[in-house]
Write a structure and sequence with these properties.
Length: 255
């Protein structure tokens, strides 16, 4: 859901607290929210609306829409981050998605933690499995595939620590993966899908390109996956066209 849609929908809902009428105080809250979201995003955990109201607005909940809209514009214009509101079970939570194409050297400067890099590598491996398996993988199939990489669900890994907790809880909490309990198996197990953060941060074309590089194949060799790539790109273009025709530009006050 886009932020403009979320803001317009929330206008009809009940509000609490007071509005911020002083422009100086409002600008201060916008800047505090920008810094708060930049800091919290380092943890790669969705940023909750209730935490923003508690930590930043401190009872001025009616100001949320306006402050968030201005903060989102500033994050995009100044820092190159797009604010995405999540849906379903993660409703009223937000993530930041880098809207800029970074060079490899820039990426290394942003993420220099070896453990974080290793975890992101594991995320990409699992997302690749899901994508190449028609957007779903069963938990037992995932563990079977990870065994070939020396990663076992019941072991304490030298880099990842408790691997099962990392994949099934942390990656889910951060929005990279989504799980659903499958009760048709005995015992019940989980089906695993791309999470909302993965859907916003990673394009299917980039994922297919990575898989092709590993397997020394061409994108055209993967008919189903290539169709998903085309569908995603067509959908993104339609959203862009609709946005250009109906959504006004960022507020001039967000600088």
């Amino acid at each position: 859901m886009s932020l403009s849609q979320a803001f317009s929908q929330s206008q009809t809902q009940g509000r609490s607290g007071v509005e911020i009428t002083d422009p100086v105080e409002r600008e201060k809250k916008v800047n505090e929210l920008v810094q708060y979201m930049l800091i919290m995003d380092q943890k790669k955990i969705p940023i909750k609306k209730r935490d923003i109201n508690r930590v930043i607005l401190k009872g001025q909940n009616r100001a949320f829409n306006g402050v968030m809209e201005e903060a989102a514009s500033k994050l995009l214009e100044v820092y190159g981050f797009k604010v995405i509101e999540l849906e379903d079970k993660l409703k009223d939570s937000y993530i930041l998605v880098n809207n800029l194409e970074l060079s490899e050297s820039q990426k290394r400067l942003i993420n220099v933690n070896e453990k974080d890099n290793a975890e992101m590598g594991l995320v990409f491996v699992i997302l690749g499995m899901i994508f190449m398996n028609q957007n779903i993988i069963h938990e037992d199939e995932m563990w079977h595939a990870l065994k070939k990489l020396g990663i076992y669900q019941d072991d304490m890994h030298s880099t990842f620590g408790n691997v099962k907790n990392l994949i099934m809880k942390e990656f889910v909490r951060k929005g990279y993966l989504r799980t659903e309990l499958n009760t048709s198996t005995d015992p019940p197990t989980h089906d695993i899908f791309w999470g909302q953060r993965a859907q916003h941060e990673i394009t299917k074309r980039n994922m297919l390109s990575m898989v092709c590089d590993i397997n020394e194949t061409q994108p055209s060799d993967w008919t189903y996956q290539m169709r998903l790539v085309i569908e995603e790109e067509q959908g993104s273009q339609q959203q862009l066209d609709q946005g250009n025709s109906s959504v006004p530009g960022p507020s001039s006050s967000a600088r």
